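Write out this protein's structure.
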Amino acid sequence: MVINTNTSALNAATQLDMNSANLSSSLARLSSGSKITSPADDPAGLAVSMKLSAQVARTNAAQDNVNNAISFNQTQDGYLQQVNTALSRMSELSINAQDITKTTTDRQLYQQEYAALGSYVTNVSTQSFNNVSLFNGATLSVTTDGNGGLFSNVGIDLASNSYSNAISDSILSLSGAKGAVTDTQKAIQQLASDRATIGANEESLGYYSAQLGSLSNNLQAATSRITDVDVATQSTTYAKENILVQSSTAMLAQANSMPQSLLRLLS
């Protein structure tokens, strides 16, 4: 037995340091909710989780873009529902104006309403969504995934000839009224086609939105499996490390008291 070098105390101290470090690490994981509190905990897992987290962010951004595009299309259709009402009334007026019992004054009243409805359609054609034109006919590219994939959102042109011809007609005369009937019918046919286009846009974008939502959930679940702490398991680990620290502390105290027994040999 020696005095200068207490090997037992050194070993106990080393073990105490290790157990204390493990206890601190366990406490950090429980308090943060993450099992990777420093790169040293899981270097490879940290790298993978960072890439997955970035992909989640891109996916969520793409879903925002898609949902905004859906709102854009819904706004378009909301306007076109009213345009349909206006064109239907204009078509009705063009038939009323052909009534042989109507006077010129009567037709002037019909024309006044017809022109007012045409002005409404013209005004709708200038509307925008967040300063983006709703009805200039431009096809817009919508980002549909975190890698920059695109969907072509087909545009609607309310300034096309199908609409402008009907708007510019006059029903003051019988011949003009007859021409207006034909033109409003063509406009309504074009409107039906345009609303079908909007419906197709919305349907496709809805699928993209659902797909992105599912992908985001799955990516977050994968990230969670790498980074999130299992509280039940870690609580057990914490309890074990806590007991080991207390045990190591007790053994270090015991090892430090051993040299005192040498006094008995010297007495």
